[in-house]
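Subject: two folds for Thursday's group meeting

Dear M.,

Sorry for the delay on this. The cluster queue was jammed most of the week, so I only got both jobs back this morning. I'm pasting them in the order they finished. Each block is the input sequence followed by the predicted structure tokens. Could you check whether the formatting survives your parser before we put anything on slides? The first protein is the one we discussed after the seminar.
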Amino acid sequence: MLNFVTSHMLKKILPYIVLCFTSSSYAQPKTDSLLLQILGRTSSSISKMVLQNPTNYRLQMIYTQINRDKQNIPSFNNFYFNYDAESYYNPASMVKMPLAFLSLEKLNQLNQPGLNKYTRMQYDSNYVGQKPLIRDSTSETGYPSIGNFIKRAFLISENDPYNRMYQFMGQEAINASLHQKGYKRLRITRQFMGFTEEQNRHTNPIKFLTDDGKPFFEQAAAYNTIPFDFNRQFLLGKGYLNKNDSLINEPFDFTKHNYIPLEDFQQMLQSVLFPLSVPEKQRFDLEKNDRDFLLKFLSQYPSETSYPKYNDSIFYNSYVKFFFLDSTHKMPSNIRVFNKVGWAYGFLTDVSYVIDLKNKIEYMLAATIYVNKDEILNDDKYEFESVGQPFLNEAGKAFYNYELKRERKYRPNLEAFKIKYDKRNPADHRTDIKVVDN
């Protein structure tokens, strides 16, 4: 394992070190030499451009090295690049991950006979802007359910499932539950519906139905009376387009948007993948079948899934696997990635646990990058495909190649992550899904 920086390497990465520590923030960004060594092996002009300007790209990375002992018990060690928990980035669809975990936890804690992730649901409305939801054509039953919301949120990152899990949880419970688990800095304040601050405090009434369509459990509409601390402002860019597509020549205000530090996402994912590796209060209260369900759909491909039936030429296997998203759109057969991604406002984020069943390696990698050259928000002119995705792919490959060569005292036994995935029925001639809101 590399644990030193050669003089040649130091000369190569010194400009990066200087730039990493000149970011204006409440805390100095954290950078470890190991990440500088690994990222220094990337060679494309895009990677060099990003790494020479980490502050401009608001780049943050966390590499989690996993080592097993003789009994296969894992230990975790985080290494950082330009990491600052107080530096704002927009988490976008990343917030769907904790909402999925919390929704399953809530179903268990409600402890109602017949109430589980497969139970049919119907949403009513009782406040301005709210939308009812009676049926869901993407599910096997034709009805909404928490389980199908989680599938849609993980497989290709659909937006409405997040809104529906948010409505099931309620704004107050979401934040209180995550704060109690130790994630004190985060706040989840918004649905993806263009709502005002007040509208987001209200959530819909919900009914749960028996298989023959009769209501057997009801959840009343909820309202969050707990205020948020918005004293610290998060302003970004030099202008933005408003809802009328008019250019406003002032920074975009993210102060009241969702915010979760990158390391919190890494810890949440670790707590579900490896519950015993975190303090008990930090774990989500999940039954074994719920955890198995989460692991399956954090890593299953759209092409393997019948409900929802996504068009696999549009929603290809690496569609939400940014660290392996290259021009082939294919995933190596020996690799599985358990992850969640987000993209919006020029930010691209991925938090992943990667396993290679053939070569017996495992590690976690989290990264966020901001690609918005014109510094105008909401204009849909972001360099996702030309800069963000190529950088994350090359960085992802650099860490994978490092792990392939890294010496380990004990190779991991990864049997617990060998999952029996679904298989699309070739005789299923239903129309597939080609357009989604994500």
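Second protein, same layout:
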Amino acid sequence: MVFSSPVFLFVFLPAVLAAYFLFGRRLHNFVLMTASLLFYAWGEPALVLVMLLSITVNFAFGLWVERLAVTSSTTGEKRRSAIAVAVIFNIALLATFKYADWLWSVASSLLIASGAIDAPLGLLSDALHLSPGLRAALCTEAGTIRLPIGVSFFTFQAMSYVIDIHRLEVRAQRSIVNFALYKSLFPQLIAGPIVRYADVAEQLVSRVTTAQGFAYGVRRFALGLGKKLLIANTAALPADLIFALPGDELTAAVAWFGVVCYAIQLYFDFSGYSDMAIGLGHMFGFRFLENFNYPYISTTITEYWRRWHISLSTWLRDYLYFPLGGNRHGKARTYFNLFTVFFLCGLWHGAAWNFVLFGMFHGAIMVVERLGLGRIVRSLHPVLQRVYFLPLMLVTYAVFRGEGLRATGAYLTAMFGLNADPGPNQHVSLYLDAAVGAALVAGIIGSMPWLPKVLEWRRSLELANERVGLRRALDFAGVVLVMGVLSFAAMVLSADTYNPFIYFRF
């Protein structure tokens, strides 16, 4: 189930809201926890057992790690061993479901290349000799291991929870219901943001839903839904068509147009989901941190990662970069740490060489920017700064989007105009109609921070108690905008049009 589906919008969400506000405050967490587990089990009920396993084991880890951390007689070695066991369990759980098939195929290729075997190893599920029932529960019809939705997000949340307890930054949660709610809370379950326990610990115990907060949640959800259905989905159509073509048939113009469409799709798909998650959180009294800050206005790749998927980049900084030593052990070690973090960041996005290469590219670029390129770029005129950043970002997006290294190489070849004989009928006009054009224009405008400036201006008028008529006109325009977005979104859903969700698989 995804937020942009009719069953969520017209059945699940109204039912959960009704149950939440009908039952007393004491049952709020239980109602939300039950709804969240049902949300997770939708479409893949067997894999809810993975979530329940993660909840149960990490709840016990939290209590164990805290007991060792606060006991003065416990040696440092025991405390480190406890946190190591907790982290290893979570990494093993993630690796089993997300990377096992890929690692098995990589091992097969290496064994063939070395001459140790003559034929591929086949499917991992076949090698494990799973029982028919277990195979049906854990594997797809093709025999590959099923990927639990949001496994990367709830695993990172679990690791940050036990690590923060080990660092004595938070206390372990004593209520299994409250902890299960933190781990499975459906607004941020499948695509984040990665919510740290410290940020919601008090809200799990005591929170208030106000009329103003609920109204803001509805507006924020509507904005995210519009981003997803009206912009991301429309831009996805030409992007998917172009990336599906053989690279040697693409002209440079079509290849660049395809990756521009994908960049709009990716940002408005993911930021739209984050907006919907934050909006839903407000409806239930939760306040989640922002996950995006207009990343496409960045001037360098370094700045991009301060603005894009903020909950992931800060997680990697606090739980990987700093523990590796950060920038405290000389320049060479700093560059190694940066590259390692972004290598793993790429791998976090998926079990494929494209994601690994994407992470390595970003890590290498950030090292070069820290060596001095970033300082040079920041000294340039703002237009030249974007001339540096935007094409570079789009090239790395082509790597991220590619289906395999060979196809990615062919696509990059087309982007740089190196195809000797591209298709005779490949023109941008074949993929650019009025709807796509409107979505791209809306995407470009929406990628710039004009809306916060309008809202800031609106607040300044209110504080100064000036221009009451103008303030009311702006408020009315906001209501009309929200209603218009919801109306168009309903029309799109009723038409049963193309509705992919990129980060659903991460």
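Two things I noticed about the second structure. The mean pLDDT is 88. Residues 210-292+429-506 form one domain.

Cheers,
T.
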